[in-house]
## 1
Amino acid sequence: MPSKIEDTLLSEPSGRWNAAVMFAGSLLFSGAYVYFGVLGDSSTVHELFFAVGLALSGIAESLPTERRRAAGGFRIASMAVFATLLGLLAFAPEVIVGP
């Protein structure tokens, strides 16, 4: 009997609409990272984490329906990026927040 986690992670990709929303969010965070990093002269590493995580989720949702395992791999990688961000916030906040 498959578990709920396996059903969620290895489900069919949601389609182009969800992928487009995630890619748009990734572009938004990438733009904010460049704007505040270059022009604002501030450290905004957390936006880079969000951009990469959303891009990986967007890739997972844009795959064809028969690529369930690959989509699951991209979803797991996306969650690993977000878990890394949470771990850095908990154990080394100066990396994310700044000095």
Note: The chain is about 80% helix and 0% strand.
## 2
Amino acid sequence: MRGDEKYLNSEYPSVREKMESLIVPVEYREAVLEKVVRTMLILNGWSEDYPEFDETVQRLVTEAKRFDKNWETSQQ
């Protein structure tokens, strides 16, 4: 059992509700990933004005999806 399953299957409704509220719906998963990558780059000193900013974001999103072996199967 994964750690999060322990909480999702909790006997306490408030714990289950809290964990369920943290789950990103599949249709928004890539958009959320892109926003996280953009935020991380900006926090590390990048500017959205850099010419290569959008290209770098897309490259990092692609790499993150490739890293997650379950990306395609968990999209269903």
Note: The helical segments are 3-8, 13-21, 29-43, 53-67.
## 3
Amino acid sequence: ILGNSLETIPQFPNKRRHKVFPIFYHVDPSDLRKQTGSVKQAFAIHENKYNKDKTQRWRHALFEAADINGWHLKDRYESEFIGVIVKKISTKLCEIRSSIPNNLIGIHSRLDKLYDKIDFGEDRDVRIIGICGMGGIGKTTLASVVYTQMSGDFEGKCFLDSVREGLMKSRLISLQAQLLSKIFPGENFQFSSVYDGIEIISRRLRHKKVLVVIDDVDNMQHFECLAAKRDWFGLGSRIIITTRDEHLLQAYGVDDMYKPTTLNASEALQLLSLKAFKSDTPKDDFMSLSKSFVQYAGGLPLALEVLGSFLCDRGAVEWRSAIDRLKSEHEEEIHNRLKISFDGLKETEKNIFLDIAHFFKGWDRDFVTNILDGCGYHPDIGLNALIKRTLIRVENNKIWMHDLLQEMGRNIVRQKSLNEPGERCRLSEESDVYHVLTQNSVSIS
């Protein structure tokens, strides 16, 4: 009976969401793979009782089971060993229990791979994990789901989003203070230098098990002021970093790196359909057109969401016109895939989008509404239109925009005058503002 059960074990990992964790209790996995020592002796006995085909299947199953990642007692105390197993299994159950929104297509398989690298439940070390990939592929989404699911297992937690937006001294100090304030709520942290912040972080967190996500890193200074060394954090801590720059992670020396893949054709079609038709599959007479958009989007989740939202409630004639226009764009830049949604906005909505891209990302919705209302933009209607198109989102009453969409908006304005910032309708870069003020190059028109 035991042998027959053994045959089924290696099959489970190939089935959706099934996990197998072998426990090697007073046996070395290498002995199981090589089938030497006591394992060899046991099989010799079984071969006298059962036919050769059956024992050969058992040999093969045992070999495969020994190749699955699990726990090896080695020389550890059994109580410690049991504690590790309980923590790991509890973590895995938490991953399964936590609800994930249905619109996050394809995320389960990607989370499984990421969790394997993060190695939650192992409290003997501090692990730093990088999530690396192009903009719009879902790095922040993955990090957010992990943060939501697992933060309850830590003594402190902090999610620092969009850290790449500035490298000014005041911005770095603000990030350090934000890290400390979220892990020690109720305490007020004030310091005047990055070095003071480093000293406080390393001193206050070195014995605390924390989960920290540093989102959208693009410069080594972010690492140096927030998480330069592992001994700044208590054992069991996990630091997760998202970035587009793989070389930054290599230079920093992360423990492991996960590179999310684009959606496959089936996943991409499902995501586009959810946005365009509020259904898992396209309408029958839109299937061919939907596949054309899926092919153009290249499996990029952000592009599929934006395109699907743009196409929602539109007829086949408009769909064909949109795909013809996209195909006429010879550049492969993702901005071109997203800009079609911007071009479909009313003029007032375009102005609101550009203002948010330049000035109001992360600001309170009520405050932004008052400012835009003063400009005569009718912001309640305009903001809702942008939300419906997946061009912005509102979380905790703050307005957010994907950094790729923000870049697209700023690039639209930049293209109006590449060489003279003073001729642009909006300025957000410090260097451009400095140039205009020092050169007095503002265009009155």
Note: The chain has a mean pLDDT of 84.
